[in-house]
Specification:
This protein is 66% helix and 0% strand. The chain has 21 helices and no strands.
Length: 515
């Protein structure tokens, strides 16, 4: 399909993107990638188990020994522990618990009404930054940004006499390009943290990573993403779209549904209940003798029960206002409706559960075989010999992540694949898992909006086609490329400046590892 914004379908850029699309489409499903990776680990463990290595295992102080996973005893242990390996997989529990609460808030209508209310009351001159802000916050409801904020932004821009594709691109930049930016804790934080912690424990079994280890950085990044998106959308993207005719069928163009008085009242009560909940939590932790504090009275210590309650608190943060909104708005009439909302949220997690099954087996074999430790130490030695500054190493990791993202769109699947290698390797160089995770999130977010393999990319194309019939993959990529490149450069620079100043990345986080 012809690219209506560039006027050409044979550019070098499009040929590269076509190659990426063809190559990526040939890759197996992420779940199968983990299965094949498990087979590769088994085979490598058999080949390497007969070899001697001089590299020292940082956990034991002795030379690394690769354990053969294809012996009778190893296979018997693998089968006997398969259920325990899966059910004990840290990311599985944290994501499912958080999503139970988010599901109630989403299916009750609380999140959707909140988003509509914010955009409905936004003056035109602040429309772009507010759209991007709402898109960023929508991460707390997983896919709500893709199915609600992006199409809604097109409707609002069109209703205000602005080009609808500008609204869609701004929202897409916030939802997907700003995936690593948010000042509201969400299920994404403990999800990535759990993979990071599993990877870090390859080198240091006792290490603990806080689920909000990047919270301060992601909060500050929200401002950066909003400013970048605001400038690019209003000064570059929308002026380019001035000559692009809106030729969609008026009957197919969605209309903006007004928020009813009943929904407004329900939203107020839901927000009030959320505020009461936050106030009660503050009151509960205020006293130095609080049961939520550590025995020594510290609140941000790993010994404090509060730090182990982040995921349950995220659950409560959404389930309480979700239930209140549901009953006030009439979307819930009894407890069965609340349970059904949780069930619907779990329906959307079925694929993740399947992927987590294979991922848990792969990571377990990777750890048990000691191949992860061997790769980490050898890779760290190589980087150490190159004597690259730590900042250069981190920038290189961001670029690597952005490239891999063109082929593996899932943030969790990608981190589960490369985290067990990168996190231990950089720990050996003195770079903390917290910093490594922050760098990963930048690379992942920046290139999300230009990879056709991102699951929601085709959906965004469909949204745009409602207004401009000739919109294709090339059209959307050409719209989003300025965002992707600018975010990559500016966000990377922002991390380096943030690091140089020494601002905290998050709760109980650090920049260096001195294990």
């Amino acid at each position: 399909m012809q690219d209506t914004t560039s006027g050409s379908t044979n550019t070098k850029l499009e040929k590269i993107l076509d190659w990426i699309e063809r190559t990526g489409n040939k890759l197996p499903d992420p779940a199968m990638i983990f299965f094949f990776s498990l087979l590769i680990v088994w085979t490598l463990s058999w080949l390497l188990s007969s070899m001697s290595f001089s590299e020292i295992d940082p956990r034991t102080g002795a030379a690394i020994v690769v354990n053969n996973q294809l012996t009778g005893d190893s296979l018997a242990t693998f089968l006997a522990n398969m259920v325990k390996t899966f059910t004990g997989f840290a990311p599985l529990g944290v994501v499912l618990v958080a999503m139970l609460g988010v599901g109630v808030a989403e299916h009750s209508g609380f999140i959707n009404t909140g988003i509509k209310r914010v955009l409905d009351r936004t003056p035109q001159y602040l429309l772009t930054p507010i759209v991007i802000l709402v898109a960023i916050v929508s991460h707390t409801a997983t896919d709500a940004g893709y199915v609600l904020v992006i199409p809604l932004a097109g409707v609002i821009y069109y209703a205000m006499g602005r080009h609808p594709l500008a609204g869609i691109s701004a929202a897409f930049a916030g939802v997907s390009g700003g995936f690593a930016a948010n000042f509201v804790p969400s299920a994404i934080d403990p999800l990535l943290q759990s993979f990071t912690q599993s990877a870090a424990q390859i080198v240091d079994p006792a290490i603990q990573i806080n689920p909000l280890n990047n919270y301060f950085f992601t909060s500050a990044s929200s401002i950066l993403v909003i400013l970048i998106g605001w400038y690019l959308n209003d000064k570059i993207i929308e002026p380019r779209l001035a000559k692009v005719e809106v030729d969609g069928d008026p009957e197919d163009i969605p209309k903006f549904a007004e928020v009813t008085d009943k929904e407004k009242s329900a939203l107020r009560w839901a927000l009030f209940s959320m505020g009461v909940g936050v106030a009660l939590l503050v009151a509960a932790v205020w006293s130095e003798s609080s049961a939520l504090r550590a025995p020594n009275g510290e609140l941000a210590s790993f010994a404090a029960p509060l730090m182990h309650s982040i995921v349950p608190l995220i659950f409560l943060l959404f389930v309480i206002p979700g239930v209140v909104y549901g009953y006030m708005a009439g979307s819930f009439s009894n407890s069965r409706d609340v349970i059904n909302a949780m069930s619907k949220a779990m329906d959307g997690m079925s694929y993740y559960i399947v992927m987590a099954f294979f991922c848990s087996l792969f990571i377990s074999a990777f750890n048990t075989s000691n191949i992860g430790a061997l790769l980490a130490v050898k890779g760290a030695d190589t980087l150490r010999e190159l004597a690259l500054p730590a900042s250069v190493t981190v920038v290189g990791m961001i670029m690597l992540t952005a490239f891999v993202n063109l082929f593996v769109g899932s943030a969790s699947a990608k981190w589960a694949l490369i985290g067990p290698i990168l996190v231990p390797m950089l720990m050996q160089l003195g770079i903390s898992p917290d910093l490594t995770q922050a760098a990963y999130r930048i690379g992942d977010s920046s290139s999300n909006i230009i990879t056709p393999l991102m699951p929601y990319f085709p959906l965004v194309v469909v949204y745009a086609q409602r207004y401009v019939k000739g919109t294709g993959i090339g059209t959307l990529i050409s719209l989003m490329l300025p965002y992707a490149l600018t975010l990559m450069v500016c966000w990377t620079a922002f991390l380096l400046i943030y690091w140089s100043i020494g601002l905290p990345l998050g709760i109980q986080s650090s920049y260096t590892y001195g294990g």
